[in-house]
Design goal:
376 residues, 31% helix
């Protein structure tokens, strides 16, 4: 008997969104089964873990969504840590965005939410910052979480302890439907055998690969390369979010450096000399002393992007199939609100007016509506 029978829900994808939602549904008493081809390829294991709706200069509904999620993250993390007994590595360290001039600083989309810094204040916040930056914004409310080493492991432990079942090495091949209603999932298991799993409720959380199962979804990969350096503990007190490069200091001195944005790379794997040189140039410009810190790791991943860089949340064109995909570079930030919204959808729980508005704003239908308005 699979989790999809009875009151069970299938989670298609074992990345951050899949685990976050599985955790919330299991806490609510639902039977949950996670199907994952290879959890290590998920963006949640690759991202730097910035919680930065303001530092990233988001606007409109995406800023609202990010701010809502940011407010929920402390309580969400507290749940995960209580259920798992593990730390998630949440740090309320603040993020500094540097600028070449005060004029550039003052027109930044989220400048009203930040503290304006001149060069002297910038140096106080980021000792050793490169000489090319003359001004900055400090977003004290933004922060980070150690998703790669701590959050993902804590979520996995929480899910297992709550009875979530995992099938690793399972490739979802096809959504089976009748009369636009979900009936099952066609998969290939780790032994290469084809199987059909009966399913009436499922959530699509396949990240950059989501459109393989539902081609109408405008989700495509944007490759990113990253690296990490081992710096002295407390050498960098805050995250630096520079143009094209960001530096995220972990509590033990590890410095996560990201990330290239390769929109034409498709699913091409591997590091490239050009991408690594780009990261090194960013380090030299933002924090010159870090050029001399020893390298630890280099890796890459694929962001699930949509045309407006906002996620797809809520219902789909198939009854019984829910969407939690397309989070682009804000997946870690948006995990808390995504898990809550999708849990409410699956459980048919009442929504607040704000939650209803957010689900409408990030419905997959916004793209079909936009296409229709262009043709009218």
């Amino acid at each position: 008997m699979t989790a999809a029978q009875g009151n069970g829900v299938l989670i298609l994808g074992g990345g951050l969104m899949g685990l976050a939602l599985a955790h919330q549904l299991a806490r609510a008493g639902r039977s949950v089964e996670v199907l994952s081809r290879q959890r290590s390829e998920a963006a949640g294991f690759v991202a730097a873990g910035m919680l930065a709706p303001h530092a990233e200069g988001l606007s409109g509904d995406l800023l609202r969504l990010g701010q809502d999620s940011l407010q929920r993250i402390p309580g969400w993390v507290e749940q995960i840590e209580a259920d798992s007994g593990l730390s998630c590595g949440l740090r309320d360290c603040g993020i500094v965005v540097p600028f070449a001039s005060e004029a550039e600083r003052d027109i930044y989309p989220t400048a009203p939410w930040g503290q304006a810094l001149d060069r002297a204040a910038l140096e106080r916040e980021i000792p050793g910052i490169g000489p090319g930056w003359r001004a900055g914004l400090l977003f004290q409310q933004d922060g980070q979480i150690d998703n790669r080493r701590q959050l993902m492991r804590a979520l996995e432990r929480s899910c297992v302890d709550l009875g979530v079942r995992f099938q690793e090495g399972v490739e979802v091949l096809e959504l089976l439907q009748r009369d636009q209603t979900l009936r099952g999932i066609r998969v290939r298991n780790a032994e290469g055998d084809l199987q059909t799993i009966d399913a009436r409720e499922a959530v699509l959380c396949c990240g950059a690969w989501s459109a393989d199962l539902l081609p109408e979804l405008p989700i495509y990969p944007v490759k990113g390369q990253m690296l990490s350096l081992q710096g002295p503990k407390d050498a960098l007190p805050r995250v630096i979010f520079g143009p094209g490069t960001y530096l995220v200091p972990r509590e033990d001195g590890l410095l996560v450096v990201g990330a290239t944005s390769e929109r034409d790379a498709g699913f091409t794997t591997g590091l490239t000399p050009f991408g690594q040189r780009q990261l090194q140039a960013g380090i030299a410009a933002l924090l010159p002393e870090a050029k001399h810190w020893p390298p630890m790791e280099r890796w890459w991943g694929f962001r699930p992007c949509t045309p407006d860089e906002g996620p797809l949340l809520g219902g789909s064109s198939i009854s019984g199939l829910w969407l939690a995909a397309g989070h682009h570079r804000n997946g870690v930030l948006l995990a808390a609100i995504t898990a809550q919204l999708l849990k409410s959808c699956v459980m048919s729980e009442p929504l607040t007016t704000n939650e209803q508005e957010l689900l409408e704003a990030f419905s997959y239908r916004r793209f079909t509506r936009a296409l229709k308005s262009q043709t009218d």
